[in-house]
Design brief:
Keywords: Signal. This is Lytic transglycosylase domain-containing protein. Belongs to the transglycosylase Slt family. It holds the Pfam family SLT. This protein has about 300 residues and is mainly alpha-helical. Helix content is about 50%, strand content about 5%. Strand 1 and strand 2 form a beta hairpin. Helix 4 packs across helix 7 and helix 7 crosses helix 8. The radius of gyration is 26 Å and the shape is globular. The chain starts with a helix and ends in an 8-residue tail after the last strand.
Length: about 300
């Protein structure tokens, strides 16, 4: 029996050695951790990048408060997977419209992520009365030249509302001194941010004590920027064909009233629903246009929708 005990002890020691080696191989190194994060369904603490910025302005991640708040937003938005995938899909459709308008106006490209957190890139409606992808209030829209009434609401016009957002942000940057503060002011207003800076005797967003919504605002923007810029790193898997794309359109000039958009749509081999999908700023089944204003209505090119 002695030889049996020796053999048993040998194989026991061998088994323990193999387990030890396996454990070392599977240890939570940065490399193994990143592979697991991508390839399985377990939930892991995220590795916060050493450097993050908004519009070229760095986040002070060496500050424990800033680090924890950034960590929170990355976690929340990484593990809200269904919403994250929708953001990838919609961004592929709408960023190509937004990006050149930002560039033309000299507004940093990072502001496209502000639109993501404002509306999820949908024509959202807020309880306070903000509308559209950029969530513009009626008074602000009119101040910057958008038409807002029951018949026409250009806050739902993506190109025009993006232009207004740019003008507002440029004005905020001139008044407050940084793009980070301009972004915060998009949520809390220029006067609101200015007042808080003065009251607390600081000059930086990350030094301000703010309410819940504005206090999270920049961190949410930066989290979406980081995730949407690095899908593999945060475990999002999709193919090009899974993403949404914009249907090509051409513009039809209208400078008179349109009494029936159902009949108008049929002239272009589409239906009323499709017309309104591509022109959400047209709020009623007709266009009053008593002033004979010039409008441009988007019509989808043929072949993208089945017609009866």
């Amino acid at each position: 029996m002695k030889w049996f005990k020796n053999v048993f002890a040998f194989f026991g020691l061998l088994s323990l050695t193999m387990l030890f080696v396996y454990a070392l191989q599977d240890a939570p190194t940065d490399e193994n951790f990143e592979k697991k994060l991508i390839n399985d369904y377990n939930v892991y603490a995220l590795q916060i990048p050493e450097y993050l910025d908004f519009a070229g302005e760095a986040l002070p991640l060496d500050n424990p408060d800033i680090y924890e708040r950034m960590d929170k937003e990355l976690l929340v938005n990484t593990y809200w997977q269904s919403n994250g995938l929708l953001m990838f899909k919609r961004a592929h459709k709408y960023f190509p419209v937004i990006e050149p308008i930002l560039k033309k106006n000299g507004v940093p490209d990072d502001f496209k992520y502000l639109a993501v957190i404002e509306s999820g890139l949908t024509n959202a409606v807020s309880p306070a009365g903000a509308r559209g992808v950029w969530q513009i209030m009626p008074a602000t829209a009119r101040e910057y030249g958008l038409e807002v009434n029951d018949n026409v609401d250009e806050r739902y016009h993506l190109e025009k509302s993006t232009e207004v957002a740019c003008q507002y942000l440029i004005k905020s940057k001139e008044q407050l001194g940084s793009w980070t503060l301009a972004a915060a002011a998009y949520n809390a207003g220029n006067s609101g941010v200015s007042r808080r800076l003065e009251e607390q005797e600081v000059n930086d967003y990350y030094d301000l004590l703010l309410g819940e919504e504005t206090g999270r605002y920049l961190f949410r923007i930066v989290a979406l920027k980081e995730i949407l810029s690095h899908p593999d790193k945060y475990g999002f898997n999709f193919r090009e064909k899974d993403l949404y794309t914009e249907v090509p359109t051409y513009k039809v000039e209208v400078d008179t009233a349109v009494t029936d958009f159902t009949a108008f749509a049929k002239r272009f081999n589409i239906n009323y629903k499709i017309l309104k999908i591509h022109n959400p700023w047209l709020r009623e089944p007709n266009l009053n246009n008593k002033s004979r204003k010039q409008y441009f209505i988007d019509i989808p090119k043929e072949g993208y929708y089945k017609t009866d």
